[in-house]
Amino acid sequence: MKDEKKWLAIRELNHSIIKRPVQVRIGFPAPARRDWRCPYQIVGLGSRRVRYAYGVDSMQALQMALEAVAIELRPHRSQLSWLNTLGLTGLYRPVPIGFGPKFAEQLEERIQKATETVARRLESRATRAPVARE
After folding, report:
1. Per-residue DSSP letters for the chain?
2. pTM here?
3. Residue 1's pLDDT is what?
């Protein structure tokens, strides 16, 4: 119970090769000198060391911890599964804001358009009448 209070969120992933769970842990953001920091840990892929992501406020520190986890899992993603789906971790890099709001907005628009295109295709397939076979 003591360890659970240390973490804000925990996700358990399955590893297809080592056959034991990989646990991703995100801690509570806390002030760190002038900035904030958020602890995170990945258990089951080597080092159990707690690392920290930093931000100008608690929200950014939390976002940076989630991004750091996504980046660290990326080389292993093809061997990891979540919700019984190989390659899915549910953790992805967010749209970067470091290149300015216009760049971030352009990426968000591209993501939205691609999402709508896929949704329309899926909807079209679902509403097509089945073809009678002879």
Report:
1. -HHHHHEEEEEEEEETTT-SEEEEEEE--EEETTEEEEEEEEESSS----EEEEESSHHHHHHHHHHHHHHHHGGGGGGEEETTEET--S--PPPP-TT-HHHHHHHHHHHHHHHHHHHHHHHHHHHSPPPP--
2. 0.82
3. 42
